[in-house]
Amino acid sequence: MNDNKNRYCVIMCGGVGSRFWPYSRTALPKQFIDFFGTGRSLLQMAVDRIKGIVPEENIILMTNAQYAGIIAQQLPQLRPEQILLEPARRGTAPCIAWSAWHIKALNPDAKIMVAPSDHLILKTDEYGECVTRAFEFVEDNDVLATMGIKPNRPETGYGYIQVGDHLHGDFMKVKTFTEKPSEELARVFIDTGEFFWNSGMFFWSADAIIRAMRDTAPDIAAIFDGISDYGTAAEAEAIAGAYPRCRNISIDYAVMEKAPNVCVECVDFGWSDLGTWGSLYDNSEKNDQGNATQGCKALLFNSSNNIVSVKGDKVVVASGLNDYIVADVDDALLIVPRNEEQKIRIYVNEAKTKFGDKYI
Amino acid sequence: MNDNKNRYCVIMCGGVGSRFWPYSRTALPKQFIDFFGTGRSLLQMAVDRIKGIVPEENIILMTNAQYAGIIAQQLPQLRPEQILLEPARRGTAPCIAWSAWHIKALNPDAKIMVAPSDHLILKTDEYGECVTRAFEFVEDNDVLATMGIKPNRPETGYGYIQVGDHLHGDFMKVKTFTEKPSEELARVFIDTGEFFWNSGMFFWSADAIIRAMRDTAPDIAAIFDGISDYGTAAEAEAIAGAYPRCRNISIDYAVMEKAPNVCVECVDFGWSDLGTWGSLYDNSEKNDQGNATQGCKALLFNSSNNIVSVKGDKVVVASGLNDYIVADVDDALLIVPRNEEQKIRIYVNEAKTKFGDKYI
Known about the structure:
2 copies of one chain form a homodimer. The first copy, chain A, has a 5-stranded mixed β-barrel. In chain A, strands 13-15-16 form a 3-stranded mixed β-sheet. A two-stranded antiparallel ribbon of chain A has the order 5-11. Chain A is globular. Helices cover 30% and strands 26% of the residues of chain A. The first copy, chain A, is built from 11 helices and 16 strands. In chain A, helix 2 (68-74) links the parallel strand 2 and strand 3 (83-86). Chains A and B meet through strand 12, strand 14, strand 15, strand 16 and helix 11 of A and strand 12, strand 14, strand 15, strand 16 and helix 11 of B. Strand 16 of chain A pairs parallel with strand 14 (315-319) of chain B, so a sheet runs across the interface.
């Protein structure tokens, strides 16, 4: 085991996962669910994957206060000070900023990996090697590194990273970050070989990300520079006052698209963003008609390319459904075309307005 | 009150209602369900409608043994001898034959109305008048009378009766009974003005139906002629041995299409066969998009002409559904096009084979 005491892993697990409703509920978002029935939630798997690479005491969870109880239950080995409770939802930039200022106060030499808690990774050995190389690269170079996943299909649900000059090994300069493309454009991306999926995983030194924040998002940096209580009992109260003043913005918009020293490690370890029903469909076993029934008791007639997911012991009989998501959980039923999965968030918000929080 | 002691009403309530799955379940078919949330089941409403016209002690329920408990609960005023338990499912002809032989033994002058238990009737006053006229007509004439409903649309889910010569008042000779027509043919039916919906309600004297049975279905008549214990404690045992020997056949095929003295009372009292989802859709309030949501918490986007029915406190979010039935009850979910409702029975049977009885 190499000396890894300066390595930290920040796992973001405060999202509500509304695009995965009704499985993902505000009270129990998808990262806390044992999605594949393996006995481990997505968050537990994220911790399992990293704990041989980063000392367990250097794992920091960023989450919302309402999930503190669930996390204590799922990860009893973590000490309370490893769990930072965001007092408001402000997107990934303020969340990552807090983690950086906090960790820098604990260890000025810290190198930080930032990881979402709701991804699926199939080849964990290769993942471990890639993560280790990324830590080594940011230990040796003053860069903000992201992981780009080699695409295996023209996916329209992910953002893409276009790579530029070669740096070292699998590390390349970033030419551009792109929004989710149309299918036509996604095909072009694949054909060029220059585009990789934006995984939302990042590596940097505490110093490098703080400097980049001061440069590209000075308003947010100023808020965290104004706090001197990191790592003390007074930190939570200071954050409670300061954090809500941050604007709501993602780390991609706030920093990655603006900083000059951004690079990407091009990897391929069987990754999927389980952020959407479509990605679950892609990762599920399908029958000859392309129906993924998640092991539930479903009988589908004249139906193809659907994902059917039903909680509990329940029979589904359907006919004439093509390319749909059917998801049934207790007091909520969702039936939408797979190509509308980006709208689920909007639909669910309307349902929340109309019927109340309890179903969402 | 006129002297009505010879009037009997046979209510058939032994069906499993598989076309109305998953609301209608083998353990609790639709006739026992409080469908409209009025506090009365369809069967209770059928009894309520008739009890001012026929003495309550002359109401006879024909049902399956497994429903004896439900009936005792829903209709505690009926004596056990008013409930005849069919030892096997054999269609309407054997069921009606048993009722006729049984009632004839109780009262040789009996006039009998046969009614399904799962119909919706909106104008109960007019219904009562039509029923009374039908009793009077079969008291005065040696006929087998059925009720034909004036059609208000080219419904393809019902059989039709073509009327012939006028007899008296609203009573006409029957020219033909027809199967469920195509939509094109149904339109022709409506345009001619000669076709009425076959309601499945019948009126006759015990004598007339027994004579007709001996003539048109002698094998069935012979089985019931072979029993001499009607109205005694030995009846059930005799039926248990004899009834299963009857072939499975409807009263329409066995008698009505063959007997020479068949007539129809042409009526219009807001009738619907609640045998199918389509008929429930027709009888439900709809929004501007033609969606009938049965008062449930449904939010439908880009969707029209659906019927959504969900039991319990549950939210439905759907998109891109047109002309569908969505029905969710506890451990069963049905999603099929409305124009496939005649196939639901087949689908449900397959589900029974595949997943077992408990969901059906």
